[in-house]
Fold DUF1611 domain-containing protein.
Amino acid sequence: MSNHGDATLPGHWGPPYLLYLGNPADDLAIKTARGVAYWRPEWCVGQYRHRDCKPTLGLPDISMAQAKAKGANTMMIGTANAGGMMAPEIIADTIAALDAGLNVVAGLHQKLRENPEIVAAARRNGRVLFDARDPAPGIPVGNGRPRAGRRLLTVGTDCSVGKMYTTLALERAMRQRGCAADFRATGQTGIFIAGSGVPIDAVVADFISGGAEWISPARSDDGWDLIEGQGSLFHPSYAGVSLGLLHGAQPDALVLCHEPTRRHMRGLPGYPVPELKRCLEANLVAARLTNPAVKAVGVALNTSSLSAPEALATCRQISDLLQLPCQDPVIMGVESIVDNLLACFAN
């Protein structure tokens, strides 16, 4: 378990976790906690939320003291708000968790280490603070030089369309087949799940491609680095980070992620979601700068807003359109995508 970031004292953050929800505005605001609960349920002893909190993970509602008694090591702040700031209640609850003997980790833009009261509570209790959006020192500028190993990158038509879920599903499916495959996290939720990674949206722009190179170094075991994508080349706010990942990952394979009911880019009603063929080709063109042999191997859909028959029909339609396997990783798995990936690179 990586412990880079901000540790007030020598120590070790990690599971078991108490997942902190507090009082989020809506279900989307707890996506960090939900991602950890979905992919690492064995690590989660319960959830902490205020009495008027409606969103839930379906975990036991417990206090910080109860979580400690059940073996929790760390409270994870699993909620996010506009701007990633710590509201007064989050600060108070963080101090209470530290006083209960828990380490605290967060993925907010406002850092735990920036609050003197939180730092003081950590020091007096001998606890560790970890800010996932605090890149490790020493990330180099990308160089674009070819490196050994195989890499897959998930890309998207928009933000929040399932790139992390798809990448983790691919890791699980490939490992079940006996393939060497490792999830490489580039966002705060992924870092909490993997225990390491680089928060690519907090990296200085000149170092984004270097950050992708740094988390997926050369490997000689015939295995795959599965790199979590971010943003979209077609999102005016986040295209820069998407492009940096495409260049630094030097992907051999791309999987395109898409939410078929979305009509415009998240948060930007004036920008429609790109047509799938155009989006896929743009990602392939960009990726060819550092890997001219890159291939598209599949499409992953988030069909949570569709009925089961609609989801199947949409997958078939997109598969026919792009001539690629198309599945919803959550309800259908990714077996056909893995089949195609391994067939494309069998040698």
Remarks:
- The domain at 150-344 is CATH 3.40.50.300 (Rossmann fold).
- Confidence is low (pLDDT under 50) at residues 1-10.
- The CA atoms of residues 17 and 42 lie 9 Å apart.
